[in-house]
Amino acid sequence: MSIDKSNVVSELAELYEFCLNIGTSLDSSINASTFFTSFAQRKNIKYISVLECKKDALYLKESFPEILSSEQTIGTDSPLCKYFKILEEGKIHRIEQENFSFAGFDAPYLWLYYSEDVYILFLQNEQDSTFSGIVRSQLAPVLKKFSISMKAHSIFIKVDANLVNLKFDEILWMEALGDYVGFHTSEKRYVVKVTLAYIEKRIAKKNFARVHRSFMVNTDKIKMIDDSSLVINEKLIPISRGSRAGLLESINLLK
Fold first, then answer.
1. Where in the chain are all domains bearing CATH 3.30.450.40?
2. Out of 3.30.300.180, 2.40.50.1020, 1.50.10.10, 3.30.420.10, which CATH number does the structure's domain 154-250 have?
3. Which residues of the chain have pLDDT under 70?
4. How far is CA 112 from the centre of its chain?
5. Residue 239 contacts residue 229 (beta carbons within 8 Å)
6. Regarding the domain with residue range 6-150, which homologous superfamily does it belong to in the CATH classification?
7. pLDDT tens, residue by residue, 192-229
8. pTM of the prediction?
């Protein structure tokens, strides 16, 4: 009698689609949200946290649901930290422990993964029969890509036949040029075949704001703002009437 593998095929198809969407934003919070909503609800996960290792402790970067600030640091004396230390990097590990509790959530199954100094923990309500070895092996590359996206400080853009690593902090503003976008830095302009609308969906970082249909700016680089324009590096950039309120909300404004 043949074994019905349709659920596994379906799961792998979902993971493939999931992998395409993970890490497409330059904002780690948006990448985390994509991860949580796409994965947690489908795999009977009640809690997920993403932590980053710094020196001798783990610091919470994102969680779903959000947890109290008092639980955002895990010291080396924590049993959880000891679990992470014995893991093999790049593989998903399940730890079965009766009544495991973390951040106020209890669950019988604890899943752990780490890569690139980013640690992912998720608690599962009950064992999922489709969470097989083959699915785990397919999920591991997705989690690796997600781990990288959580630490991203730059983006690779294609210029002619080359890929140029452009740091977010180096970008002053971006300008729509038809089917192209000009990335302006203090040193030069890079012209890339892409639309500004496409870039806006993926640069949802808090220090970038769309101020005009043709301009998106790094708010940290703004020197001055008036009623209808702003100045970055001596460049006068227009502000559309409908974008001004959003711009003011995105900056650290002393009222």
1. 6-150
2. 2.40.50.1020
3. 1-44, 54-56, 66-72, 96-108, 125-139, 148-152, 201-206, 255
4. 18
5. yes
6. GAF domain (3.30.450.40)
7. 999 998 888 666 555 889 999 999 999 999 999 999 99
8. 0.52
